[in-house]
Amino acid sequence: MENKERRQTAGAVPLGTVSPSVLNARKSLGLPRATKESKLGRKTGLISRPSLAGKLVSTGGQPQRRSSTYGNSSGIKTDPRPVTDKGYQQKLVRTLIQFLSEHGYQHPISPKLLTSPMAKDVTAIAQFLHAQADPHFKKFTKLELDVPELFKNLRYPFGISKSALFAVGSPHTWPGLLAALLWLVELLSYQERAEEARPETFDDKQAAEHDFYEYIEAAYKAFLSGDDAEAQELDDSKMQQFEERASSIAQESNELQQGIEQIQAELRKLRSEPSPLNAAQAKLTEYAQDQEKLQRVIESLQGHKQSLQRKLQEHQGDLHSKQQQLTQVQQDCEEMQQKVAAQTINRDDVLRMNTERSKQEEIRTSLAMQRETLERRVGDQEVKLEHQLGALETTVQAYNSTADRLQLIPTTAKRADGAQFEAQIDRTGAIASDIVSLDLKGSVKPALTRLRDTSADRARALSAEALALQERVDALGIAISERMEENNGLQEQVEELEGSWREKKGDLEEDMRSAREKVDGLKQEIAGVRGWGSQPLQDSHTAYHTLQGQLEDVTRRTQAERASLSSELEEAIEMICSHKFEIQEIIRKTLEQVRQHQAAFQAQQWDELLEEPA
Fold it and tell me: pTM of this prediction?
């Protein structure tokens, strides 16, 4: 009776709360990884590994082979491996020795020993490999009976006769048995690699179901063995995991909410503040203008330098010509002085010559003054012309810079439409049309007018599109707010369910404690009235059975309510996880749309900035 009570009150979770995908999952019948504990013969984990010694029907954990190997043909199959080849046998021996050494084989082993082994050596190796597959394996009773049964249960594709095991070291028996042992080694090695790669093949949902399945298996085992302490410990551990998972989900939800608020704050800040791209573009434009100005100054100075060099060459030519004229005049003076010295001069000739010289001096002075006046006027005109040409070049360079920024030059530019907008200055031109290379009124102005009208139409279209995009952004913000409200509501439901579960659990435990106290009191009353008579004893037994039935009823209701609460809690956690993933996807899409809208706004502002000078 006490064992029955203990089994009924064990904290086992009904199998109805487990999802079908978890119940249908089976553990592999292969080996665990060769850890230190497995080498020492201890269990690794809460649940022992299923035995391979029984009637195995599952092929889980076996390496994939061709379907022809596992056929149901009634004929005897021929081993295609070269088992009689000496080189192949040596290779199998090395592989077997390596596996046994790595997995803690305790007996002596060497290539010489495996060339023609004795029956005890083969028995020790087979028992060790079987123990690797089944931790609960004890020992073989008879080698000639147990080894064929082992390989038959493992679905070894080739037969092993019992008569061959009476002389295992003979040349016609040992190669086939060695190949069978290596087949088992390959099977165990494959299972080790499969178990190592198993954690990487599970996603979050599958890993959670796998953990819950292991919990159900351990709890059911404790229930069957009547271990209430272990069952309660498993329940508390799983409940703590659920609470930690719920806390983690709530924390992630809060972090997502904070991230959304930060993103929204940054978005509002970016909308309220001037765009850094505009400031950078303004600085870039300013630097480009300064560079153009410096380039124009350099070009102007170079032109002025060339002009001064030309004037210097002209003055040097004039100087050379004047020097030649001076030399000629000096020669003429000397000749005249010689002639004068040879002539006889009277007083009238001297007076006439003096008068003539005075007149010539006056004429020379007048001509020199006229020459200086003309040279000053020519210099003033040259300076004025140079200033005007410099101003014209500055204007043309500013015009070309603006046209380049507006993508109007060269003729293949985006907005040029095949028209020539680039202007050039020819300082050697004689008239205004020769100095400037473009017809500003006839071709440039009409083309710019058409471009202005086109840009205005596009600006109106972009404004309408920007308004529509802003409406979409506002709608997305409202959707995010609604999702966050739903998330908060689900969180409150989870907290309410947890509180209700704890409250009902406390009430049920109190009812069970009260029922046990009544049973104990009834037992004491029965012990006290054993000598009274048959009728009081019968009444006591009746009351005892009544209380026992009430206790069983309370226990059943407790288990049912616990199962219901566990199911509701699991559904709530799944709903929260699903909602969390939906929120993450919405946030990701929202951020992507915000980035796209921001890029569109920046592109629109850039186009408007480029269109303003036009």
Answer: 0.29
